[in-house]
Amino acid sequence: MMTTEVLEKTQYAFPGLLNGKVGIVFGVAHKTSIAWAIAQRLSAAGMKLIFTYQGDRLKENVEELANTIEGSMILPCDVTKDEEVAAVFEAIEKQYGQLDTLIHSVAFAKKEDLAGAFIDTSRDGFMLAHEISAFSLTTLAKAAAPLMEKSGGGSILTLTYLGGERVVKNYNVMGVAKAALDMSVRYLASDLGPKNIRVNAISAGPIKTLAARGISGFSSILNYMEEHTPMQRNVTANEVAGMALALVAPELSSGVTAEVIHVDAGFHAVGF
Ligand code: NAD
């Protein structure tokens, strides 16, 4: 049986699988970011990458990581700023004239809305969480589609969580935003399917990242998973990245769209 350690040490690089393809990754903030794990797998398979960072606070971090990937481009982009989104896609058009992949690994909610009771969510907090964590997928898909059409199609992938399907303590407004995100995946897949652009989501199990630390009681969720998932363990960002690679590569998933795939050691299937 393969242990998690063995899986982590294995490269699974699939060199050449994504040669000649161009992808943009939204959501790298730190080396623990799920987006960073995904970027490394896509790059190892030959994809050229563009990274974005949200605000100057994260610039240095993202630059340091992106610079380890030869030839990558780094651009600022707060997904709530239309002019920054437009500038990103103009830069890609100028540099590459095409786009094959978009990774949307972006979410935000106010800290006070990730604890206590959902009923106490403020109007502001609700709008903010939905704008950044759900609506941004539509904004970015709309901007990316013309460049993907030039590639003859493409793959858009977002990251979601079980808290959008079931009630998870403290996940609150982010769960409601994830439900909107999951449904956006299906509507976008329907809109963009005729252009051979596929839209999917990975529902990841809990992974210790900057965003996850904002959720009250996150460590106890990790402990609970170890006891209650069918595989009796948590998943790693690298395992999520493996599924991302499959969903991005047309050779592996050309018939898959409008799908939410759980990479959560089977927890989504567990009842009592
Ligand atoms: P992370 O903190 O590394 O990534 C979150 C990213 O969102 C950061 O890069 C941040 O800069 C970006 N972001 C926030 N507001 C933004 C804005 N206005 N404009 C542009 N970018 C913005 O954490 P992560 O856990 O890697 O999160 C990535 C995705 O995975 C999120 O959608 C999250 O909900 C999802 N997810 C995480 C887990 C988990 O347990 N970590 C589980 C399931 C799903």
Radius of gyration: 18 Å
Structural class category: alpha/beta
Helix-residue proportion = 40-55%
**SSE order, as H and E?**
HEHEHEHEHEHEHHHHE
Strand order of the largest sheet: 3-2-1-4-5-6-7
List how many beta strands DSSP finds.
7
Poorly predicted parts = none
Largest sheet: 7 strands, parallel
Range of strand content: 5-15%
N- and C-termini, Cα separation:
27 Å
Q: Quick one: overall form?
A: globular
Give the mean pLDDT: 95
Provide the list of bound ligands, each named once: nicotinamide-adenine-dinucleotide
Total of DSSP H or I helical runs spanning 4+ residues: 10
Structural account:
The protein is α/β, with parallel strands linked by helices and 272 residues long. The protein has helices at residues 4-9, 34-44, 56-66, 82-95, 123-150, 172-192, 210-213, 218-228, 237-248, 250-253, and strands spanning 22-26, 48-53, 73-76, 101-104, 154-160, 197-204, 260-263. A 7-stranded parallel β-sheet has the order 3-2-1-4-5-6-7, with helices on both faces. The longest helix is centred in the middle third of the chain and has 28 residues, at 123-150. The model has no long low-confidence stretch (mean pLDDT 95). The site of nicotinamide-adenine-dinucleotide has 28 residues, from helix 2, strand 5 and helix 7.
Helix-strand blueprint:
Layout: H1 4-9, E1 22-26, H2 34-44, E2 48-53, H3 56-66, E3 73-76, H4 82-95, E4 101-104, H5 123-150, E5 154-160, H6 172-192, E6 197-204, H7 210-213, H8 218-228, H9 237-248, H10 250-253, E7 260-263
Parallel strand pairs: 1-2, 1-4, 2-3, 4-5, 5-6, 6-7
Helix pairs in contact: 2-9, 4-5, 5-6
The chain binds nicotinamide-adenine-dinucleotide.
